[in-house]
Amino acid sequence: MNVWIAIGVTVLGCYAVKLAGLLVPAGALERPLVKRLAALLPVALLAALTAQQTFADGQTPVLDARAAGLAAAAVALVLRAPFLLVVAAAVLVTAGARAMGAG
Length: 103
Hints:
This protein has 5 helices and 2 strands, in the order αααββαα. It is mainly α. A two-stranded antiparallel sheet has the order 1-2. Helix 4 (65-78) runs antiparallel to helix 5 (83-99).
């Protein structure tokens, strides 16, 4: 039964956040600082998620094949490769590092 309570609380929380977003006055959303933060926040969250998934295993920091794949993707991005090539480079380097025993 605890799972259903958690689901219900999550549903109510999501609805409350959505409602709060609709109740924000339009004038507040037109401020330059709010516009700048709204543009930068998704990038910061995605970078944090990438770092968490790459350099951590639960609560333990790790440096394994995922870091090599991320480095390969970064190099491909610097070279302005197409997105699919960036992903392919990351996958191939990560798989190759794991095959060689890097974790």
